[in-house]
Specification:
- The complex is a heterotetramer, with 2 copies of chain A and 2 copies of chain B.
- By secondary structure, chain A is α/β, with parallel strands linked by helices.
- In chain A, the strands form 2 sheets. A 5-stranded parallel beta sheet of chain A has the order 1-2-3-7-6, with helices on both faces. In chain A, strands 4-5 form a two-stranded antiparallel sheet.
- Chain A starts with about 70 loop residues before the first helix and ends with a helix.
- Helix content of chain A is about 35%, strand content about 10%.
- Chain B is an alpha/beta fold.
- Chain B is built from 12 helices and 14 strands.
- In chain B, the strands form 3 sheets. A 7-stranded mixed beta sheet of chain B has the order 3-2-4-5-7-6-12, with helices on both faces. In chain B, strands 9-11-10-13-14 form a 5-stranded mixed beta sheet, with helices on both faces. A two-stranded antiparallel ribbon of chain B has the order 1-8.
- In chain B, strand 13, helix 10 and strand 14 form a beta-alpha-beta unit.
- Chain B is globular and about 60 Å long.
- Classes of the chains: A alpha/beta, B alpha/beta.
- Chains in contact: A-B, A-C, A-D, B-C, B-D, C-D.
- Chains A and D meet through helix 5 and helix 6 of A and helix 5 and helix 6 of D.
- The complex binds thiamine diphosphate (2 copies) and magnesium ion (2 copies).
- The site of one magnesium ion has 7 residues of chain A, from strand 4.
- One magnesium ion binds next to strand 4 of chain D.
Chain lengths: ~400, ~350, ~350, ~400
């Protein structure tokens, strides 16, 4: 019989708050190339350790090492780098546009570019990606027109979504990019349903869904894993662990007690925990999971370890809740820098070429933004007509909506 | 034509649609091998295989969420929520996703699906097997809401719902699965075989969504009802001798305001009946609409006869259920009004 | 007295109650160290510690579910849902549990709690940061629903909500956190410091739930409004020169029908204004109620001015928002009616 | 590059359907006493294997063996046996009453008695249990009046819940039994919230919540584990895996891919998988988890492996979906028989005494049922007054409910 002690409430606290020294000692970073790569037909129970380590390919000198090295040719490497750099140029430009009032809102993905870009270039054209608001790298890697992206952000007359959606809530079916929802996590179980449908039809298309680590707490995360395992859906379930959910560090979602990759274990789903700032690791892990899915071996969960380098959004001020320079001490560095260094070590790239690339992507983005602006912005009010807000509520507009539309126009 | 129960007609509708369109898939809790706790999917797994008719984990949110993804892929999911009382964990996927996907993607992606659920009381189910949440769905733009009152309508409307390219909520008053019920719980149960609308075509036919039906023409007052309450209203008309015109709404959204207006303009009096709790129930929308459309023709206040604003009690079910006595009392008040 | 913004008044109310009752705990997404995305809990964690003010995982269902258990233990949780648009994953715990626990256990267990959430549009938030789901809550027996229109009321009502032994939904129109807003988005923002009701006592005071307030006495017609729409109605009255009596409902459930009836009996005309979508919005219940209570005094059809039955658009926000022009047009129609 | 194969939909199917031979080969049953008992301060990561095995104390000869043996004294053993036997007598009586129309509905817990009974006798009076509808054994073990139980089932004038709730939806605060909800799983996260409250107050009370294996798919299961791990709540999270969820076997909830105990691993919560038909294992596992909770070591998840021997409820007919005799081949036997055999091997019990005990509990239950009947049943209509249905919606009855109550009475 144990004697009574008063119970204690245990609330996880982040390693550092504003004014304190950034501290990532909680993150164990194994050397690149040290984690083995199991064959894709490995049973989930025989690879549980992969949920607790970190798959890394690029070492500190920029060399690609170990069994997970995807051995990409130089063109693929250059394409990846270009898309990442372009993504950052685009984020910079849109951030400026927001400050100028040309758009009401913007979300950057700085520091996380490798994940969406690598994923986009590794998966197939007819697969479907169920993204969050921080996966614009997919659109850029898949060469969706920058002008169309900017038109959506500016909510102008050419916005394919007719100004109905907030900026960055893209929808791009033509490049396998599912309509972004403002509601966290809902797309995760939809990705599983989409993948189940592909299997029911005996097709070959697979799905990939994304949530942030904070969103793993939502019900749809659990729904997705439950359905994925029960029906062995051909789906990749990504958790982008960028350490922060607005002002809440990853411990609030349970990250101090275990890894997010480990969540898959209890469902009998194989899990990979991957250095998300390592472009080659992103390609390799995506390939491994996609091959499993395509060969009827079911779902895979991938935790991408990365860091949200910028504010949550243009409405957020991270200096209120984390050290301003935390990003500088992030152990996994900057995905663009790391891939650049790799290309340079390979002898196929140089600082000059890199500077030229940035100049080029900045120019391309600027031109696209200028063109988009010529179709209007929220500032000059050249937005899609109000009549349009009554369309697409239903396939055919019911009478009550027609009535309301007439009334709207009468009362102007 | 065959005499069908309401669940039989529902099963027949799904069967017909699975036969015609192999994108139609059926899933939910216990709907597969077992055929559903109300037998609405009996025999379908044996006939179409477990890839098209299957059991799911117990998670209404997961069921509807997966259906959204399947709909986006191009399937037409017909899912069952075992009781309407259990739809709440799935409301977010319905409200935030199914209802808005077409709009937010400017029709790049859509979520055709039919969400079936038994509703209403009268089976001693207590507060968690008796609810009528229809008004919640009607407040969500992007959802259509259907609530049939008989086997013939149930089949024709369910076929239309499955063919519809937008998400449709299909509520099934469980008390009338096996026979029309007029609220006289002490009387012997009447089977559908004795009812004209229990006679159902075996094959394909559809009844357009958004059309109400006048079940009983009358000149004294208009009753707006749906589901079980249509039969209760018929009993009340008969027992009071008041010549009520009974409008069965069939579809709550989109609402057939034309039929409603025509009837109330004629009678000048209106009683609205539903089983759901009163405050912000669908009767509120009906009353507001009638008042807007027929203000100058109204000779008496519009009355609402509804479930009380309490959870559905178990032992006192018949004090809660809006039966012929309460509906009849409303008829008299409305006729007495000058 | 201090000049307070609406979020300042809300923070003050929570502060006062945490001071008085150490069973009051505060939690939700980003409400702890950060103080909430709308700063409504700023400084409270520093003052009361992270055992009483803490961040939660991102799961509205978990937040409300945990609150039910805490309430049953004897605490008084005050939880924040970051935007009302995100309450749907928590609806099951609200509808099936919080609202029914007292009833189903015959008061052996209760779930006192206050669920705060910013609602309404006007901040370019698009469809997922602009919704007004109040009518859904009013349909759920066992829940009280409050929606204040100014700092003075917000504090007094929030204190009453926290002290209430039943679950209370507390909706906060985010567009008026920093100042009264009458719908003229092109005009400069007016701070609360210029408004009489921006003057708020620093200490404890409570305003009983269930009482409406007449903001503007008038003889031509009655306006039933709440939240932001109270200010829009005032602008419309001023701009049309129509002598509107503006009733600010403050609490939607329980509803102050006495004040409503008194006003409509006097004016004989009624316009209802809310931002939520029209069909089955709370305006429907209000219209039905007024019609039932004041039928013989009504000289014109009751009008509802509401958000359209579409998701809240981003770029066309001001075509959607029911501004003074639309409210004024309704005033004129109602006055013109004979 | 792998070549394309058509995707397959993977749906788990139960080992046997009606007409087929029962088959429990999927269930691995280790010998009793073979699983080690880690000290209660063991870190979750050092005991993951306990989620994949089965803790058992009673061996096939009825001897108590191994490190998990709770070494109960004979009186405690007899109390446990008596409560289990009483529970079965009560289930029998109420099942009959339902056939006679005295109640609309009933749910048995046959085959699962050990779990609720052992749990009730091991936890403390001021702890709180958040049960499902299949935990009546707790009320009986805690000696809540049988008459009160029966009055609730009969919905009669003495029903403490005034006939508002369906039969078996008990609420018994005085014995730490939380109001049963008809909505699956909702109580699970409430148990965690209750436990968090106890910790916030620095009290010593712990909570225990229960769901069936089918219900693990609901959102609140995930919410409960997420909150429990983040705040290290003093709670026991029980999953009663009785193999069936109405007509769906445990594979539909994911049981074919992993164990339900393993679900805890990814949250960093320790998990025990226990023979739920072994009374001594129930006591031992409950004790281990409770001690952890009481000493601020946080939550524990326990999967109780058992079998739902009866129909789901009186509205269900299992012969439609599983072999009628499946129960006979259930490897873990009958909890009552097993504890009986143990007592007999100890030489403190006999078949005669057991027969006498059954006769005694049957008689006690019959007397209680008779008394309850004398206060009315659904059949004779002596139920709580209709006026009462307007009470307890709110603490104070608002005017609109008073108005509605008057109207109800006028329109009679
Ligand atoms: C259902 C829901 N709840 C809350 C929010 C508000 N919200 C938007 S982003 C965010 C944080 C998400 O963090 P995480 O999942 O880690 O993704 P990240 O922003 O880090 O990429 C929150 C709480 C929301 N959009 N939807
Ligand atoms: C939210 C919700 N969905 C569905 C149901 C209907 N239902 C009642 S019991 C049950 C099966 C539960 O199975 P399990 O969790 O394994 O518990 P068991 O009955 O086996 O003890 C179902 C689906 C419900 N009561 N609540
Ligand atoms: Mg994050
Ligand atoms: Mg079970």
């Amino acid at each position: 019989m144990i004697e009574d002690v008063p119970l204690r409430f245990g609330i996880p606290t982040p390693p550092a708050r504003p004014g304190e020294m950034a501290d990532f000692s909680y993150l164990e970073v194994p050397a690149a190339g040290t984690v083995e790569r199991p064959p894709i037909d490995t049973a989930p129970k025989d690879m549980r350790d992969l949920a607790y380590t970190m798959i890394r390919v690029l070492d500190d000198d920029g060399a690609a090492v170990g069994p997970w090295n995807p051995e990409l040719d130089v063109t693929s490497l250059r394409d990846g780098l270009r898309a990442m750099v372009m993504t950052r140029s685009y984020d910079d430009r849109m951030t400026t546009a927001q400050r100028q009032g040309k758009t009401s809102f913007y979300i950057r993905c700085t520091g996380e570019e490798a994940i969406a870009v690598g994923h986009a270039l590794e998966l197939r054209p007819d697969d479907m990606f169920f993204p969050t608001y921080r996966q614009q790298g997919w659109l850029i890697a898949r060469r969706w027109p920058l002008v169309d992206m900017a038109c959506q952000v500016f909510s102008n007359e050419k916005d394919r979504l007719h100004g109905r959606q907030m900026p960055i809530m893209y929808s791009a079916r033509d490049v396998g990019f599912f309509s972004i929802s403002g509601n966290l996590g809902t797309q995760y179980v939809q990705a599983v349903g989409w993948a189940m449908a592909s299997a029911i039809k005996g097709d070959t298309r697979i799905a990939s869904g994304v949530v942030g680590e904070g969103t793993t707490a939502e019900a749809d995360f659990h729904h997705a894993l439950t359905f994925a395992t029960t029906y062995q859906a051909p789906v990749i379930l990504n958790v982008v662990n960028n350490q922060w959910a607005i002002s809440s560090f990853q411990g609030i979602a349970g990250g101090s007690r275990s890894t997010f990759a480990a969540r898959a274990i209890g469902y009998g789903i194989p899990a990979l925990r991957v250095d998300g700032n390592d472009y080659l690791a992103v390609i390799a892990a995506t390939r491994w999971a996609a091959e499993r899915a395509r060969t009827n071996r079911g779902p895979t969960l991938i935790e991408w370890v990365t860091y949200r380098a910028s504010a949550h959004s243009t409405s957020d001020d991270p200096s209120r809740y984390r050290p301003v320079d935390e990003w500088k001490s992030w152990p996994l560095g900057d995905p663009i820098e790391r891939l650049k260094t790799h290309l340079i070590t390979l002898g196929v790239w140089s600082e000059e070429q890199h500077a030229a690339l940035i100049a080029e992507t900045d120019a391309e983005v600027l031109a696209a933004a200028r063109e988009a602006e010529s179709y209007g912005t929220l500032l000059d009010g050249r937005v899609a007509s109000a009549r349009g807000i009554f369309e697409d509520v239903f396939k055919d507009m019911p009478e009550h909506l027609q009535r309301q539309r007439r009334q709207m126009e009468d009362e102007r | 034509m065959t005499a069908m129960t309401m669940n039989g007609a529902i099963r027949s509708a799904i069967d017909v649609m699975m036969e015609r369109d192999n994108n139609v898939v059926v899933f939910g809790e216990d709907v597969g091998y077992f055929g559903g706790v109300f037998r609405c999917t009996e025999g379908l797994q044996a006939k179409y295989g477990s890839e098209r008719v299957f059991d799911t984990p117990i998670t209404e949110g997961g069921i509807i969420g997966a259906a959204v993804g399947m709909g986006a892929y191009g399937l037409r999911p017909v899912v069952e929520i075992q009781f309407a009382d259990y739809v709440y964990p799935g409301l977010d996927q319905l409200i935030s996703e199914a209802a808005r996907l077409r709009y937010r993607s400017s029709a790049e992606f859509t979520a055709p699906m039919t969400v079936r659920m038994p509703c209403g009381g009268g089976i001693h189910g207590g507060q968690t097997h008796s609810q009528s949440p229809e008004s919640l769905f009607t407040h969500v733009c992007g959802l259509k809401t259907v609530l049939p009152s008989n086997p013939y309508d149930a089949k024709g409307l369910l076929i239309a719902a499955i063919e519809d390219d937008d998400p449709v909520i299909f509520l099934e008053p469980k008390r009338i699965y096996n026979g029309p019920f007029d609220g006289h719980h002490d009387k012997p149960v009447v089977p559908w075989s004795t009812h004209a609308l229990g006679d159902v075509p075996d094959g394909y036919y559809r009844l357009d969504l958004g059309r109400a039906a006048v079940r009983r023409p009358g000149s004294d007052l208009t009753v707006l009802a749906y589901g079980t309450m249509v039969h209760v209203a018929e009993a009340a008309a008969q027992e009071t001798g008041i010549d009520a015109e009974i409008v069965d709404l069939c579809t709550l959204l989109p609402l057939d305001t034309e039929t409603i207006q025509k009837s109330v303009d004629k009678t000048g009096r209106c009683v609205i009946v539903h089983e759901a709790t009163r405050t912000s129930g669908f009767g509120a929308e009906l009353s507001a609409t009638v008042q807007e459309l027929c203000f100058y023709r109204l000779e008496a206040p519009i009355e609402r006869v509804t479930g009380w604003d309490t959870p559905y009690p178990h032992a006192q079910e018949w004090d809660y259920f809006p039966g012929p006595a309460r509906v009849g009392a409303a008829f008299r008040r409305v006729m007495a009004a000058r």
